[in-house]
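Q: What does the assembled structure look like for these inputs?
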Amino acid sequence: MAKIHIPTPLRKFASNQAIIESAGTTIKDSIATLTDQHPELKKHLLDDTGSLRRFVRVYLGDEDIQSLEGEATPIDEKSVISIIPAIAGGKQ
Amino acid sequence: MITSTEISFSKAELERYSRHLIIPDFNIEGQRKLKAAKVLVVGGGGLGSPMLQYLAAAGVGTIGIVDYDVVDDSNLQRQVLYGLDSIGKLKVEEAKARLLSQNPHITINTHNTLLNSDNALDIIKDYDVVADGTDNFPTRYLVNDACVLLGKTNVYASIFQFEGQVSVFNYTDAEGNTGPNYRDLFPTPPPPGLVPSCAEGGVIGVLPGIIGSLQALEVIKVVSGVGEPLAGRLFLFDALSFTTRILKVHKDKSNPLTGENPTQTELIDYVQFCGVPAVEGATLERPDKDLKRKTVHDLVNYREQGVDFQLIDVREPYEYEIVNIQGELMPQGEIENFLGNIDRQKPVIIHCRSGKRSTNVIRKLESEHGFTNLYNLEGGVLAYVDEIDNSLPKY
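A:
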């Protein structure tokens, strides 16, 4: 199964796991499997229509899925998917 | 801008920078460019501390520092530019004094202000490169947009708990091609409350040292023209697993500043921008509008008068161990497991550290579970320590 990297701010909604294996043949499937396993993640990643929220970036390997086929981008067992959060800390 | 050929060095400077001058690919030409450069560091905190120290030590000729804050004891866990004698003093002044004692051959400009849409262009226009070490989304977007509008490179870094990000935005290479900016990576900010700040979520003390040093390195590379800046790429560091990754960042055609149909030609209201829910068409509503509140003095009065009420603390257990005000612990993330423990009749005062998380919990309990008897403790534990019991620790 493909591996999904969970960023620090979202780990508390994913049983504190950094990497989760998730079944599916496309990015959309894989994220859907992930949010089925961890329902708390759903509202952070997906909007009401089930599409990825605009402030969430998803990468396949080192490439932004928006530069590939978006959520329809095919994945395989060796795929490494990363969810990249906007984080703002630095001064405090 | 002074061209680097007009730059000369004193004997003391040549001796000071000798380790740079003997690097074949850096040499005196790189050092001249550093001395000619004007770099603005926004935020003199966790990232700013190491960055300022290395930029000053390296001999960046003019360094500007923007910060409105004073040094607090809790800063010293990671803001290594300051010491005990700095507490209560302006960060920009303390930083200036320490940096000049480290390197008297440079100029430090202080901007003791909060960067905002009214002053950002005026402050940034006099610098060549901006290094963003702030701690909130409105300022991140403000710095980005001001840099894009003024054509300045924005060396970006950000940290949260054990995670760091670095990139070089709006960098124009030798061929005149300008790379992506922050809005290409994150077109919209997350909705308020979704991503906690470092003040709420914490940060491991060494992390800003690592990430701020990488940021300083990218500033030096951009200024000196040595090496390949991290433009069009995002560096990620996960300290827990010691994993580093570099991802590609592409230009976004819908970027309102630099996309195919730009719609934004000036700075906007960034507080409002970042307060807008990410869901299009939703109305802008301040998260605390209509919130029922109690002050810490109300809480004390309730106790003294023997009023029958419930006090709930929605922080995490490890925060409760640092300090508590005898609330019942029901952490925000697990609040739905405690629904049966929350009274529906008597007044229920909910608190956290500063009042943000408790606001979110009240919103959720009201909208999803029909509670009508909830009050937010204004200012949370911090206000309680300040106004009621100074012997308790703040964090």
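The first strand of chain A starts at residue 2 and ends at 5.
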